[in-house]
Automatic annotation (TrEMBL):
It catalyses: 3-dehydro-L-erythronate + ATP = 3-dehydro-4-O-phospho-L-erythronate + ADP + H(+); 3-dehydro-D-erythronate + ATP = 3-dehydro-4-O-phospho-D-erythronate + ADP + H(+). GO terms for molecular function: kinase activity. Coiled coil: none annotated. NCBIfam families: OxoTetrKin. This is 3-oxo-tetronate kinase. It comes from Meridianimarinicoccus marinus. InterPro entries: 4-carb_acid_sugar_kinase_N, 4-carb_acid_sugar_kinase_N_sf, NBD_C, NBD_C_sf, OtnK. Catalyzes the ATP-dependent phosphorylation of 3-oxo-tetronate to 3-oxo-tetronate 4-phosphate.
């Protein structure tokens, strides 16, 4: 049994982001979609990332799926568990980060878990327990307008306290910069004070590595992909990681498509960058709601486009349009209509020979990957920080890049296919 690190990710783009980090840190990683069957074989993987679509699920579902994932990972031999959530702490006032952390702590019989969504390379830093996106507090950033998880508070201690039964305390930047011994001393002081969740400040990769080193003996660690940076070194130092071979690259031939459901500023900028250059279509949510065959029309249109250039189909809209749509159909139904349509379009396009797909948005990626029936992904080359190409394991060849809504520069879509062309 080779799995030494098990991860539970609350969405699919977050899972590939984490898997990408672990690969860069020299681990053999498999990402599985949903909780696998008991007899699923992950080969010689040293880390397995279970991708769930639990970020916005009802709390009890998110908890039970996460516990099932935990059981499966422990069955594979994983002794350290990483609960991966968004670097912008995407959650509702009920969860699911707090309730899942509580449930994992209870199941792993531990009184303490680190809480650290920092991802400095993508502008997410934590200072005095407050999460920043670039130079803005989370609550002032575009995340305040997220369609499903609007983030209106940047104080991670308050957010954890509101969502969980445990109490949160701060591991301040002074301790973090002083290194693993100081971090461990602070954790011990928090534990003695009955604190269960240690929110760790981090503004640089070095801070995350120091926190990672301090977490060597923690059975549960929670955070963004950044918190994973230091964990493979611990395993190496313990002699539990043999050297991993270079990552497999997806050399998949086929037509190229971008499917976007993310309404983030970053994704809307990426759409704007290709709108006048590529064949592009936007989904009409009102026509979907009226029961018209929007999916069929999109498939006909897509297949009529000249072979060669990538195409783009998107539902993404600006905050004002999203608000109007949600007011008409409700938040959940509005989101589901777009996700379901993009999932069905992905299936139709794959059957028609589109085998290189970029999907923008975590919930959207969950819907698309599930509709495609993909069960596991191999991690390939990185396109932009936190976004690798992946290749579906088994089935008809398919290269997938699952892009977190906020990740990537304006030219991301072009960059993505350029990376694949070099493989
Ligand atoms: N025009 C629209 N009106 C209402 N909702 C929409 C519209 N277009 C997309 N959506 C929904 O917005 C949600 C976007 O969430 P998604 O997780 O896909 O993106 P994101 O949050 O930007 O990405 P990430 O989770 O990776 O940060 C999805 O549920 C999607 O269906
Ligand atoms: O941490 C992040 O920002 C991403 O991996 C993510 O979870 C987006 O959904």
């Amino acid at each position: 049994m080779t799995v030494v690190l098990g991860a539970i990710a609350d969405d699919f783009t977050g899972a590939t982001d984490l898997a990408n980090t672990l690969v860069k840190e020299g681990m053999r990683v498999v990402q599985v979609i949903g909780v696998p069957d008991a007899d699923t074989d992950v080969g010689d993987a040293q880390a397995v990332v279970v991708a769930l679509k639990s970020r916005t699920a009802p709390v009890d579902q998110a908890v039970s799926q996460s516990l099932q994932a935990l059981d499966w990972l422990r069955g594979q031999g994983a002794e350290q568990i990483l609960f991966k959530y968004c670097s912008t702490f995407d959650s509702t006032e009920h969860g699911n980060i707090g309730p899942v952390t509580d449930a994992l702590r209870a199941a792993l019989d531990t009184d303490f878990a680190l809480v650290c969504p920092a991802f400095p390379a993508n502008g997410r830093t934590i200072y005095q327990g407050h999460l920043f996106v670039g130079d803005q507090l989370l609550s002032d950033s575009p995340m305040k307008n997220h369609p499903l998880t609007p983030m209106r508070d940047a104080n991670l201690l308050r957010l954890m306290d509101a969502q969980s039964t445990g109490r949160a305390g701060l591991i301040g930047l002074g301790d973090v910069m002083a290194g693993p011994e100081a971090i461990l001393a602070r954790i011990e002081a928090l534990r003695q004070a009955g604190i269960h969740h240690g929110v760790a400040d981090a503004v640089r990769d070095e801070d995350l590595r120091a926190i990672g080193r301090a977490a060597a003996r923690h059975v549960l660690v929670t955070g963004g992909s950044g918190i994973a940076m230091g964990l493979p070194d611990n395993l190496r130092a313990q002699g539990r990681l043999d050297p991993a071979a270079p990552t497999v690259t997806p050399g998949v031939a086929g037509r190229a498509v971008v499917l976007a459901g993310s309404c983030s500023e970053a994704t809307r900028g990426q759409i704007a960058a290709v709108r006048d250059l590529w064949p592009v279509r936007k989904l009409d949510v009102d026509r979907i709601a009226a029961g018209q065959d929007v999916v069929g029309e999109m498939l006909d249109w897509a297949c009529a486009q000249p072979d060669g250039a990538p195409i783009l189909i998107y539902g993404s809209a600006d905050p004002e349009e999203v608000r109007r749509t949600q007011a008409k159909y409700g938040v959940t139904r509005a989101g589901e209509m777009v996700e379901d349509a993009l999932g069905r379009i992905a299936t139709g396009l794959h059957a028609a020979g589109f085998a290189r797909m970029v999907v923008a948005g975590g919930e959207t990626s969950g819907a698309v990957v599930s509709a495609l029936g993909v069960t596991a992904l191999r991690i390939g080359p990185e396109i932009a920080t936190g976004v690798p190409w992946t290749e579906a394991v088994g089935g008809t060849p398919l290269a997938l890049a699952l892009k977190s809504g906020n990740f990537g520069g304006p030219a991301f879509f072009d960059d993505a296919f350029a990376v694949l062309d070099q493989v």
